Amino acid sequence: MLSKLESEIQEKIVKQLTDEGWIVLKSISNNKSGFPDLQAMKFGRVVFIEVKQPGKQLSPLQVFRGQQLTEHGFEHFVFTSVNDVDKLTASTYWVQKLIKLITMKWAA
């Protein structure tokens, strides 16, 4: 169950993403405990977002789920405010992501 502050942050994030043209799904209940709160999709891109209060940490299971998603090539973010939506449009992120994927492929 989300705390009041966390749910308020989540509502603002969903609104901002929706206003920017993202399709946003909230995870209310699923068969995977620790799965991120939100999934956002736009132009073939799918990102998973865990919403936390500022200063709060992910649980060990949430960390594990984030690592699982990343290992499968998905983007996983932890947002603590609506301002974190800017992370999705940061151009340097794409360069870092590409370098990481190339490095992972060559290391395998």
Question: What does this molecule look like?
Answer:
The protein has 108 residues and is an alpha+beta fold. It has a single domain (4-107), classed as Trna Endonuclease, Chain: A, domain 1 (3-Layer(aba) Sandwich). The chain contains 3 helices and 4 strands; from the N terminus they run H-E-E-E-H-E-H. The chain has helices spanning 4-19, 60-71, 91-107, and strands spanning 23-26, 38-42, 45-51, 75-79. Strands 1-2-3-4 form a 4-stranded mixed sheet. Strand 3, helix 2 (60-71) and strand 4 form a beta-alpha-beta unit. It is globular. The termini are far apart. The relative contact order is 0.15.
What topology does this entry show?
Layout: H1 4-19, E1 23-26, E2 38-42, E3 45-51, H2 60-71, E4 75-79, H3 91-107
Parallel strand pairs: 3-4
Antiparallel strand pairs: 1-2, 2-3
